[in-house]
Write a structure and sequence with these properties.
single chain, alpha/beta, seven-stranded parallel β-sheet, 8 helices, about 45% helix, about 15% strand, globular, SDR_fam, EC 1.-.-.-, oxidoreductase activity
């Protein structure tokens, strides 16, 4: 069966995608920083009859990244690498004039450096896969200027550029950056705690990601709403 590595997989979009893949028979290697929540997620996904390896840790740790790829190798390889783990840089978000530089460094380390480090670890297995793919979760803040979202948006813009170049350098793979649009996630709640307005469930974005896997369009940046609209 195909094998996916998904970071930030214990909650939100990461968990929703993991569940959809488990229901389709994929084996999974899951990462998150909170062991208890990740363990519960893995147990729920194993009910689909798939193999699930849950490795708690921080994606900025190179040994943890190596462990994720090694575990995937034990399951048969790496067919899909999903970089979903993210850091905001400040919680709640603040204007650039007040953004702690250590917070910006953390956002860049998690959202950009760690994502590239994991790709580099997984590249041999991805190249050997029948249909290797890399999926990075972007944001509209990577392309639009939203007040207080500058540090996070800059990190996601950098991730978009890495994904774009990787798609050119690795023509045998598919490399997609996806802007999922608004979602009700813990990340958004931490970013803007005063905004308690209704937002879509992350599970609603998953059909857009599955469409990419099924149709394998060219490497590039995609918006989930457009993918969903085209499918309906």
């Amino acid at each position: 069966m195909p094998v996916a590595i998904i970071t930030g997989a214990s909650k939100g979009l990461g968990r929703a995608l993991a569940e959809a893949l488990a229901a389709r028979g994929w084996d999974l290697v899951l990462d998150a920083r909170t062991p208890e929540v990740l363990k519960d997620t893995a147990a729920a996904l194993e009910a689909y009859g798939t193999r699930v390896a849950a490795l708690p840790g921080d994606v900025t740790d190179p040994w943890h990244r190596t462990g994720l790829v090694t575990e995937a190798g034990r399951l048969g390889g790496v067919d899909l690498l999903v970089s979903n783990a993210s850091a905001l840089g400040a919680e709640p978000l603040v204007r650039l004039a007040e953004l702690p530089l250590d917070g910006l460094r953390r956002a860049l380390e998690v959202n950009v450096v760690a994502a590239l480090g994991l790709v580099r670890e997984a590249l041999p297995a991805l190249r050997a896969a029948p249909a290797g793919a890399v999926l990075t979760i972007s944001s509209d803040a990577a392309a639009e200027a939203y007040e207080t979202w500058g540090g996070y948006g800059a990190s996601k813009a950098a991730l978009d550029q890495l994904a774009a170049v990787l798609g050119v350098e690795e023509p045998g793979l598919r490399v997609w950056a996806v802007d999922p649009g608004d979602m009700a996630t813990d990340l958004y709640a931490a970013a803007v705690p005063d905004d308690d307005g209704p937002r879509p469930d992350p599970a609603g974005v998953v059909p857009a990601l599955l469409r990419l896997l099924e149709e394998r369009p060219a490497s590039g940046r995609y918006g989930a709403p457009a993918l969903l609209e085209a499918r309906s």
